[in-house]
Design a protein that fits this description.
Elements (H helix, E strand, L loop, with lengths): L6 E6 L6 H10 L19 H7 L1 H6 L3 E7 L7 H13 L4 E10 L2 E6 L3 H15 L8 H9 L4 H10 L12 E2 L6 H17 L4 E4 L1 E7 L7 E7 L4 E3 L3
Antiparallel strand pairs: 1-2, 1-7, 3-4, 3-6, 4-5, 7-8, 8-9
Length: 239
């Protein structure tokens, strides 16, 4: 039986070693560049098992903001061509700064931008357009899973056109910090994260690179394998 092809994603991720990288990776319990599992912080009134559970989904994807959601390569495309396209795309971008704050996105706690929305939206559009000819259309199983999530008509149209429903005018830049949580737990976790962010003096971040993430097999943790700087540089992580 043929092994399923890997999936690739274009994300923004904080630069390695920065306060946001350290804080976010520790909170999720995993370094997406090395794959190392990290000891997560304690939150008063919340057990460590609950913290582990509510961060399970974002931990698999790594600390990131989606610019092009995971996809398999289209027939005739290979990873080398993909990387050349990403480097070409990154090299025409210009760095900019955005301020982040802890907020709520639907039932999730996430880092959301306070400014720079136009630049973020333009960057996402460029990523979606640049990957259009390289990405394989989602299969029937993935489409069915997306549709079962309760999409509106516009999101359904975007799913058909781009393979993902939350792109272009439905895009919202965010870094997920937990899965879906409700009520008092969401308030407690969100409050703790906001204090931790403030204590680490993490508010302004520079958007100056695109991150290539790879899911080697279905359900496997995504790895941050390369950083494509807007200055044309390429930094690779691990094997």
């Amino acid at each position: 039986m043929t092994e399923p092809a890997p999936r690739f994603a274009l994300y923004w991720a904080p630069e390695a070693g920065t306060p946001l990288d350290r804080l976010g990776s520790t909170w999720l319990g995993r370094d997406a560049r090395t794959g190392a599992l990290l000891r997560q912080p304690m939150v008063p009134g919340v057990s460590s098992s609950v913290i582990r559970e509510i961060t399970a989904s974002p931990r698999r994807y790594g600390l990131h903001a989606t610019l092009r959601a995971p996809f398999r390569l289209a027939p005739g495309c290979d990873p080398a061509r993909l990387e050349r396209s990403i480097q070409s795309l990154a090299s025409v971008q210009r760095p900019f700064v955005t301020r982040l704050a802890v907020g709520e996105l639907r039932d999730f706690v996430a880092l959301l931008p306070l400014n720079g929305h136009g630049a973020l939206t333009a960057l996402e559009r460029d990523c979606v357009e640049a990957m259009a000819g390289l990405a394989q259309a989602p299969g029937a199983e993935e489409r069915a899973r997306r549709l079962a999530g309760g999409l509106n008509d516009r999101q359904k149209a975007l799913l058909e056109a781009h393979g993902y429903p939350f792109v272009l005018d439905e895009f919202r830049f965010h870094l997920s910090l937990c899965g879906r949580i409700q009520g008092a737990l969401r308030e407690r976790v969100g409050g703790w994260l906001a204090e931790a962010l403030s204590a680490a003096r993490v508010d302004e971040v520079e958007v100056a690179a695109l991150g290539l993430f790879v899911e080697a097999a279905p359900g496997a943790p995504l790895r941050h394998v390369a950083r494509f700087g807007f200055d044309g540089s390429v930094l690779r992580f691990g094997a």
